[in-house]
Amino acid sequence: MARTSGRPDDAAFGSTGTVLTVDLDAVAANYRALAALAAPAGCAAVVKADAYGVGMAQAAPALAAAGCSDFFVAHLDEGIALRALLPDATIYVLNGALPGAELEFRRHGLRPVLNHLAALDAWAALGRKDGARAAALHVDSGMSRLGLADDELATLARAPARLDGIELALVMSHLVCSEEPADPLNAEQLARFRAARACLPAAPASLANSSGIFLGPDFRFDLVRAGAALYGVNPLPGQPNRMASVVRLQARILQVRRIDSPRTVGYGATHRAARPSTIATIALGYADGYLRSLGNRGVCLIGEHRVPVVGRISMDLVTLDVTGVPAGLAQPGAVVDVISERHPVDDVAAEAGTIGYEILTSLGRRYKRRYLGASA
Ligand SMILES: *Cc1c(COP(=O)(O)O)cnc(C)c1O
Predict the structure, then answer these.
(1) Is the pLDDT of residue 6 over 80?
(2) pLDDT of 280 over the 90 cut
């Protein structure tokens, strides 16, 4: 991409002038790092929501090439799409099968996560008829969202024959606040999960998400389920991020203007120039997942210069105060870093009042997407 003129590569930026670059080598490196930390437990990759917005069709093969054989998605449709990409992978569907969808799971070799007794009974009934198939059993240890409630677990413990017809491949639960290691809820959930396992037939177990891996060996059991950290989100908020940066979002400047007080910028006139200012407009907006809450709060980079977002975020446009940036760097066509290694997804999330997960999964469909790395 290096150009002697310093001009960006027009083709790489596409017609909108905004490009999202996903580094698949970084995804693979993050997988290997988490897998090494989790060992001897296995490490599964969570690729739901289009691999957290970075692109499952590209990320899943890269993860498989890095040694991953177990995958989790949220929906049946995601599982079917992943099966087409990875014929030999073990694929769990976290949301399980809605009533009547069980045959679709079997047809595509997908493993439902059985979240309640009726779902368990339906999978068992099919297995008794046509041969047992693998599934995961999810027990609720504190999320109160999906998974067997305490009374359902007690019922099952009294009638273990209900599991006949199911190949119990995994018993799992999900942590509520693993990114806060000091929270006593982590130990409570660990104790509840151990107690739940004791009520069930012996089976491999899984408790930890990305941050949970860092809570120590007690939390890793047989399989960890890494999601966000694979895609560069810091699993240990407040500490330096040890994961490799995966996404870079860059936009080219459309227009530059000089304004002076009392001019305002954007809808609602929420920013008023207090002095002569230079405003640059770039081509992304809330329709692209650059959240509206970043208005007057977000920060971008032009080279080494930090430039604040001023005014509201529009559907397709963002306005930046580039006063003080050398004119040669802040002119139509010049490149602005919106998300980058030096201003990572977690920082953008903090400015938006959300978490890196939401920034990633909101990444827009209008960006020109570019994949880097050996498996690209
Ligand atoms: C999304 C999800 C994960 C992955 O969590 P991260 O924090 O992204 O690592 C693991 N387990 C379950 C049940 C999930 O829903």
Answers:
(1) no
(2) yes
- If asked whether residues 95 and 172 sit together in one domain, one would say yes
Residue of the CA atom closest to atom 4 of ligand 1: 227
Q: Name the pairing type of β-strands 133-138 and 166-172.
A: parallel
Q: Atom 10 (ligand 1): residue with closest C-alpha?
A: 209
Q: Residue 46: CB within 6 Å of ligand 1?
A: yes
CB atoms inside a 10 Å sphere around CB 218 = 12
What are the tokens at 90?
């073990």
The separation between CA 322 and the C-alpha centre of its own chain, rounded to angstroms, equals: 31
Verdict on whether the full-model pTM lies above 0.70: yes
Residue 315 makes CB contacts below 8 A (sequence gap 6+) with 285, 286, 287
Pair (107, 224) in one structural domain = yes
Quote the ligand 1 centre to 285 CA distance (angstroms). 28
Please tell me whether residue 372 adopts helix, strand or coil conformation. Answer: strand
What value does the mean pLDDT take over residues 123-145?
97
pLDDT, tens only, 238-263: 999 999 999 999 999 999 999 999 99
Closest ligand 1 atom to residue 174 Cα is 13
Does residue 20 lie within any of the structural domains?
A: no
Which residues span the domain enclosing 215? 40-231
**Distance from residue 293's CA to the centre of ligand 1 (Å):** 25
Q: What is the CATH number of the domain that holds 135?
A: 3.20.20.10
Tell me if residue 48 is catalytic.
yes
Ramachandran sector of residue 53 (left: φ over 0; alpha: ψ -120 to 50; beta: rest) = left
C-beta 210 within 6 A of ligand 1: yes
Ligand 1 centre to CA of 209 (Å) is 5
Which tens digit of pLDDT belongs to each residue from 287-312?
Answer: 999 999 999 999 999 999 999 999 99
In the prediction, which pLDDT does 375 show? Answer: 75
* 242 falls within a domain: no
